[in-house]
Structures are given as structure tokens and as C-alpha cells.
Known about the structure:
Elements: H1 12-25, H2 29-59, H3 68-77
Amino acid sequence: MPKETVSVRLDEATLQRLGMIATATGRSRATLMSRAIEEYAQTQAWQVAAIREAIDELSHGDADLVDHAAVSDWLDSWGTQHELEPPSCK
């Protein structure tokens, strides 16, 4: 896939850390920035897709939900002699 050039403004401290990492790893700052942005974009795209899927499930009534009060009661019971079983989805 062809690559395009973009401009990024970073503060001096970040550039220094990036330079240190580049020197230590034998990679260029551009390579490190490219990899970091690729990983960020991949993670964010996955998260956005998961949120959209959850919203779709909710809007169609297909989501597995747990009553808030049941979760709260369960968490409050942790570490007590009467610890509750985890609540199940509806």
C-alpha cells in the first residue's frame, strides 16, 4: 500500500523520548511514529466497531444485560462470609 506523508507536532519532551527509543532500538523516529499510529488506529477502530455492535444489539433487544442492583449487591458481598454468586444475564 502506498504511504503518504503527514505532519505531526510534538512537544520537545516527547521528541526526546522518541529519539532515545529510536537510538536504543536502531529504528528511525518516523518508523516508531508510524508503528504507534498504526497500533492506535487499529485499537480505536476495534473499539468503535464493538461499541457500534453493542448499540445495534441494544436497539434490537438482543443485548445480554445484568440488572445494576444485582451487580451492586454482588460487589458489596465480596470479601464477606455471605459472598453472593455472580448475577446472570437477562
